[in-house]
Amino acid sequence: MPRSPYRPARLRRAFFRGSDAVRAGLLTPDQLRGQAWRKLYRDVYVDAAVPVSYALRCRAARLILPGGGALTGVSAACLDGVPIGEPDDLVHVIAPSGTRWERRGCRLTRTPYLPADHLVPGELPRTIRLRTAWEIASARNVLEAVAALNVVFRHQRPSRRAMDPWVAADPESPAARAIDLADPLAESPQESRSRVLLVSAGFPRPTSQYELHRAGRFVARFDLAWPEARVAVEYEGEVHAERIGRDRMRLNRIHDAGWEVFFLTKEQLREPARFRIFCDQLRRALARNRAYDK
Fold it and tell me: Which InterPro entries match (predicted)?
């Protein structure tokens, strides 16, 4: 029967600097390379019995933060209790200009000045909620920025309204644009991406999670809708496809209420040519239904 890997009590269920463990005589270099430990970063390990989550990787990053550095963006939001981040996502760090630091699995943002009142005091430095949301909004990919902001705002950490002074101070910035596009009602990242792409394509801003009622009775709830034109869009992921396959009567009730529904797929979001065709169809429907209203 194979022997269980050696795990000193001090290191069980914990993350630690490998060099510190070897220097303290808790492990030998060969033991450190064994199956009992999982490497998180260079010289940072965790007990292999501990499931690796994004929050764990964020907490472990305190062992390698550069001088004056702090967690920010989605990493700070995750530690604030926002359900965001996948285990393999980059951990976001902010540090003063001129900082020379690099770690695989981390992304560093350098800033000329990080006021002390922008940091949450404690063992693990992280930016306050307002600065955290601003850093998320400043991401190069506006689709990912808005998707993350929607989760943050939905959990009120901070609220969307709390960002108004930051937007007013720099209204032309990419961050202000991302915050303006955010919608806490969005229930999934793909729904967020759909909304941003449609608004960027020139469509009027849709209402998220719109509920259609007729004669006082609930008919349907749509991911995105233009109620005045009686047109809706739903992102057709696996859940939607399964639901629609089970309940065609739902579509009949929607059509009977005078609405049109368009289903946006993952392929249409990814492929520009397909997305353009979808947009053309949607524009015709909006124009058609507005003309009908008149």
Answer: Restrct_endonuc-II-like (IPR011335)
Contact between residue 220 and residue 250 where contact means Cβ atoms under 8 Å apart: yes
Q: Could you give phi then psi for residue 24, rounded to 5 degrees?
A: -80, -5
pLDDT digits (tens, 9 = 90+) for 87-145: 999 999 999 999 999 999 999 999 998 999 999 988 899 999 999 999 999 999 999 99
The CB density around residue 17, as the number of other CB atoms within 10 Å, is 16
Mean pLDDT is lowest, of 37-41, 154-158, 246-250, for 246-250
Length of the chain: 294
Distance CA 91, CA 108 (A): 9
pLDDT for 102 equals 94
Which residue reads 């404690």 in tokens? 122
Name residues whose C-beta falls within 8 Å of residue 2's C-beta, 6 or more positions apart in sequence.
none
Contact criterion met (CB below 8 Å) for 219 and 254:
yes
Tell me the whole-structure pTM to 2 decimals.
0.87
> How far, rounded to the nearest angstrom, does the alpha carbon of residue 48 sit from its chain's CA centroid?
27
How many CA atoms lie within 13 Å of 210's alpha carbon, on the beta-carbon side? 19
Q: Scan for tokens 């695989």, then name that residue.
A: 104
Residue among 266, 262, 291 nearest 278 (CA): 262
